[in-house]
Design brief:
seven-stranded mixed β-sheet, Nucleotide-diphossugar_trans, 323 residues, five-stranded parallel β-sheet, nucleotidyltransferase, Spore Coat Polysaccharide Biosynthesis Protein SpsA, Chain A, GMPPB_C, nucleotidyltransferase activity, elongated, UDP N-Acetylglucosamine Acyltransferase, domain 1, NTP_transferase_dom
């Protein structure tokens, strides 16, 4: 069976401001590469033959980097929404660009997960499901769409964010649709897959299954989460074939210059042409290309924008400077 994919990368990323003023959320650097690259590699590693990037905000920035997908081992196409169509509308719009395929994996553009996509695809086929939702368990489901499962792993109810969740299983942002089911989503309309599509398809008797996987899962929708995702990839708490090869618990570009008595650790990423002077401590942070860090600085759990100058002696904790 042939599998295609859609990656929803059209959002503005307002929770990530000011990081997204010039760069769309999916193109922000996480562990040395744009976040979207981790998801594209995940699809390719699971045997997906092509992926359509459903873009809207700053759509022109994706293709120059990802091209036709040849260097990522997967065919990449682009579907640009003139006006944002929501998650369901974006899926329907992007599906028109797919080659003929039996099933379609849909990724939310802001989730870093260690879940086994190949196992989710196997589960989908084995259960003859029409839709399979990747689910994960959380302590507090109020901020997420929650799902009730029957004993046979079929989804009983799909409920968007609520004050008293009926379950601690949440929609973790990776769906498998049989290709023809996508045609049931109205074309050229703003549609929410979470608020409209899933509840309506359940009510219509479509077989929707839940695939539960409790491995690493993180919504990277805030600056603090983005920093954590990057550090976790570098320190190996989650694996991605897109993470550049490195030794130790840091990633330093070969073109960066770091004083020998400065300390880099806890999953920090030092990008190209960065200059770090003496006696600095950089912990769990991302230092953008071309930044200059003066001597005796302490930077922890922070992001320094490209080409930003940090004066000597500054202490930066949990902050995002230069954007």
């Amino acid at each position: 069976m042939k599998t295609g994919a859609i990656l929803l990368v059209g959002g503005m990323g307002t929770r990530l401001l000011p990081l997204t003023l010039k760069t769309p959320k999916p193109m922000l650097q996480v562990a040395g590469v744009p976040f979207t690259e981790h998801q594209i590699r995940k699809a390719a590693d699971a045997g997906v033959s092509e992926i359509v990037l459903a873009t809207s905000y700053k759509a022109e920035l994706f293709e120059p980097y990802f091209g036709n997908g040849e260097k990522f081992g997967i065919k990449i196409k682009y579907a640009v929404e003139k006006t944002a169509l929501g998650t369901g509308g974006g899926i329907r719009n992007a599906a028109a660009a797919l080659d003929k395929c039996d099933q379609v994996v849909v990724f939310n553009g802001d989730v870093l997960s260690g879940h086994d996509l190949s196992a989710q695809l196997d589960f989908h086929r084995k259960n003859k499901a029409e839709i399979t939702l990747y689910l994960t368990k959380v302590l507090d489901a109020r901020a997420f769409g929650c799902v009730e499962l029957a004993a046979n792993d079929q989804v009983k109810t799909f409920l968007e964010k609520m004050e008293n969740p009926v379950s601690n299983l949440i929609n973790a942002g990776c769906y498998i649709f049989n290709r023809q089911v996508i045609e049931k989503i109205p074309a050229n309309q703003v549609v929410s897959v979470e608020r409209q599509t899933f509840p309506e398809l359940l009510a219509a008797g479509i077989s929707v299954f839940g695939y539960l996987d409790n491995s690493y899962w993180l919504d990277i929708g805030t600056p603090a989460a983005l920093v954590k995702a990057s550090a976790d990839l570098i320190t190996g708490q989650i694996k991605s074939s897109a993470t550049p090869k490195h030794s130790g618990d840091y990633l330093i570009s070969p073109t960066a210059s770091v004083a020998s008595n400065s300390s880099i650790n806890n999953g920090s990423v030092i990008e190209s042409e960065v200059y770090i002077e003496s006696n600095c401590q950089i912990s769990g942070s991302i230092i953008g290309s071309g930044a200059k860090i003066g001597s005796n600085c302490r930077i922890t759990d922070s992001i320094i924008a490209p080409n930003t100058q940090i004066e000597a002696g500054m202490v930066v904790i949990g902050n995002y400077l230069g954007f």
